[in-house]
Amino acid sequence: MLMLVWSFVGACAKTKPNRVRLETTAGVIRIELSDETPLHRDNFLRLCSEGYYDGTLFHRVIRDFMIQGGDPDSRVHTDGDSIVSPPRTKPLGDGGPAYTIEPEFCLPWLYHVRGAVAAAREGDDVNPEMRSSGSQFYIVYGRSWGEGALGKQRAALAEQGIEMSYDMWNDYLQYGGTPHLDGTYTVFGHVIDGMKVVKAIQAMPTDKDDRPLQDVIIKKAILE
Q1: Cβ neighbours of residue 142 closer than 8 Å, sequence gap 6 or more
Q2: Total-model pTM
Q3: Is 201 left (phi over 0), alpha (psi -120 to 50) or beta?
Q4: 169-199: per-residue pLDDT in tens?
Q5: pLDDT digits (tens, 9 = 90+) for 91-132
Q6: Which residues are within 8 A (CB) of 223 and not within 5 positions of it... i.e. 6 or more apart?
Q7: With contact defined as beta carbons under 8 Å apart, do 162 and 128 qualify?
């Protein structure tokens, strides 16, 4: 699956693509970053190299949708105790550096098929330019689609001026994903190994704020 999706941008890819290894308490997830989104690619690589993600949680998890991480306020010790002072009294999700990133939509090449890595952001009401969070990201799991339901998604995207290409259609049918996010959130990478880990995380029980009842910690984010 993963090599098929990335073959669409192969003509523009580097010989040795940038890859990141997320070592988590649930297992290892390996990510390949797209050269078609250089602002997001370089920012993610820099944060990883600085250890920014080390000790942070996948703090927001929604079954059949996605897993989200990258909030520095979620940082914990390896034993699970918070090292953020003072302890948080509200849900995680607001933390990050004091900058946002210009969107880099790259349709029809990069889209929200299962395994896509994309940048989280604030909602349109306060962020009409759809600028990405400086650090928070999510990995798509999504749902499976039949032709009827996917056809409705395609029609809804068309109303926004977004065309679902032949390749997008086939990938969503075969692998699943979250097509309603296309053209509004920047996809900047894809999981190349570790989707079983992503599947396990997205299925975890959560509290009312979508935080897993058992913390999933990114122990290290390593440039490969």
Answers
A1: 64, 65, 66, 112, 113, 114, 176, 177, 178
A2: 0.89
A3: alpha
A4: 999 999 999 999 999 999 999 999 999 999 9
A5: 787 899 999 999 999 999 999 999 999 999 999 999 999 999
A6: 18, 19, 20, 21, 45, 48, 49
A7: no
